[in-house]
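Internal tracking record. Fields below are filled automatically when a chain is submitted to the structure queue. Please do not edit lines marked as system-generated. If the sequence contains nonstandard residues, flag them in the REMARKS field before resubmitting.
Queue: standard
Priority: normal
Entity type: single polypeptide chain
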Amino acid sequence: MNRISIVVPCHWVIVADAAMLTSDGFRQYSEARRDHFNGKLEHRDAAGRPTFIANILDNKKSQDPGSRTQAEFQTDPFGANRTNITNGAGKEFTQGILGASTERRLTDGGTLEGRVYAGTRDLRNPVIGPFIMIDRSFAGLGLSTSKPGTLLGSPMRWTAGFEADSVVDKRRAEGNVGGQPNGILQRDEDNTARSSGLFGQAEWFPSEKWSFLAGLRFTHVRLAIE
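SYSTEM-GENERATED OUTPUT FOLLOWS
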């Protein structure tokens, strides 16, 4: 396994991490290969801290030798199941995400925070029987603000914001012939999950010993299978 990490301190902070893994596995038909990269770019100043991130994972191969019965383990503990090899059982996928967040200090003592992200995941998973394929996309965003104030002569702080997230899976399965899809459709569906929410919160500090917290949130969640 090879890894490279870079950290450069300055007003702009850069963090990068890359790794490659190759394994023959300790059993027959258990080879694995994957590469990944994580990156972060952050700017620090008196006014705030914007941050950008990137993550990529490329799982090129994960062979599945299957489980062993007690009799099989006693005779050949490191062997693979013949049906797993014949069907090319294993998993390959690529996934990535890009995101950004910011935190700004306002002149009245308040703060403003925001986030946004989006990503994909493509999975190819031949098993004993079907060849499973999943194409996933996901995204989200959020924004909140917090400001100081007074209530009955005592300090308080209120916060309000909203957020929304979604995931869409396009799931298909075809017949599996030697670890390859044969074009005969066995499953075709779209799975969708979406949520959105509004929230508010107030903190009141009438004395050094006492504080009161009240909050309210409304969330709408929708799940659908077509």
